[in-house]
Amino acid sequence: MFGLGWAEIGALIVLALLVFGPEKLPQAAAQAGRTLRNLRRMANNARDDLRAGLGPEFQNFDPADLNPRNFVRKHLLDDIEEDWNDKPKELEPATTAPYTPDPVVDELGYGELPPYDSEAT
User: Fold this and answer.
1) In this structure, is the dihedral angle defined by the CA atoms of residues 106, 107, 112 and 114, taken in order, positive or negative?
2) Are 63 and 47 in contact (CB under 8 A)?
3) Are 24 and 17 in contact (CB under 8 A)?
4) Mind giving me the DSSP string for 24-60?
5) Model confidence over 27-53: pLDDT tens digits?
6) 35, CA 20 to 30 Å: which among 14, 29, 82, 94?
7) 3-state DSSP call for residue 7?
């Protein structure tokens, strides 16, 4: 949860007990829960108002896509990751004959020089 281990959670609980005291801690936790719920509701309402104002063309609009990191990940890297994560297709049997090199027709004898093309060099 939020990258916190048991030691950090325990330290936060002890700190909360020291700051608020055992009798006021439940009230502070309830107030924090109400505040978080109100913030979440306000964010959802703002997102819904933005979608309604943009029209039906932007029903799939997500404000998190405006973050450059998310934009690059969504539009550029998703296709690459899908290609990399695909299972390899089984190799199809070869439909053509295997490669065989052409036989050497003219072999040079011992001491013979190969033909020289002065225009090629």
Assistant:
1) positive
2) yes
3) no
4) HHHHHHHHHHHHHHHHHHHHHHHHHHHHHHH-GGGTT
5) 888 998 999 999 999 999 988 888 888
6) 14
7) helix
Helix (H, G, I), strand (E, B) or coil at 102: coil
For 55, how many CA atoms within 13 A lie in the half-sphere containing its CB?
Answer: 1
Q: What is the largest CA-CA distance in the chain?
A: 107
Query: Coil, helix or strand for 5?
Result: coil
| pLDDT attached to residue 24 | 87
**Percent of the chain surpassing pLDDT 70:** 78
Q: Where do we find the tokens 């013979």?
A: 112
CB–CB of 7/15 below 8 Å? Answer: no
What global pTM score does this model have? 0.44
Separation CA 36–CA 106 (nearest Å)? 88
**Residue that has been written with the tokens 């450059």 in this structure:** 68
Cα angle: 31, vertex 34, 39; to 5 degrees: 125
Per the structure block, which two tokens stand in for 67?
């973050």
